[in-house]
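User: Could you check the structure of this?
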Amino acid sequence: MIINILLYFKSFILNDKAFKIFTVYLLLICFVQLTTIFVGKILHKPNLFLSHFYFIIQFILLSFFYVELLRNKLLLYFCLPVLGFLTYQYIEDPSLFYRYNAIGISITQGVLILYSIIYLYRCLQGQNLFLIINVGLFLYLISSTLIFASGNLIFNLDISESMNYLLINTNRILYFLFQILIFIEWRKNYYKKIHRS
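Assistant: Sure, the predicted structure tokens are below.
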């Protein structure tokens, strides 16, 4: 992930707003992930609360990313009710901050999947910038939604630890594949821009 951040920042100035938003997304998501590792593995403290930041940051930045790709500011009106609903959830039940929010995860990622499908449809009409990233996002979001939306269910049932690790490792593998697709997108569409300038 850090390699992708460095490569995308290397191309930052030369590219459009969608590229810049996606680059900031990579940076902030990496920061949340590193913070999660620090809190959990080094401080040995519960770090589940950081997942809320991950999904909300992801939702906001990727929504802006798709607004730019689809050139449709109406998509932002989709964001407001979702963010309003999440805010209501956390105000109504502050303890939710320390639990999996399966509904919040499903809604935010569901909206992003919808944006991704709309963009895939646009790509059929000839637009193919960020196509590889969009396909990676679509596959990763579908699978991680299924994995993370079942988070509370997994903790409420007596599912074996090996099954829990299987789900977590499946998500890690899919995320790694997503990172490979991000690199392929950069190499295919942005590597040449650096060498031309």
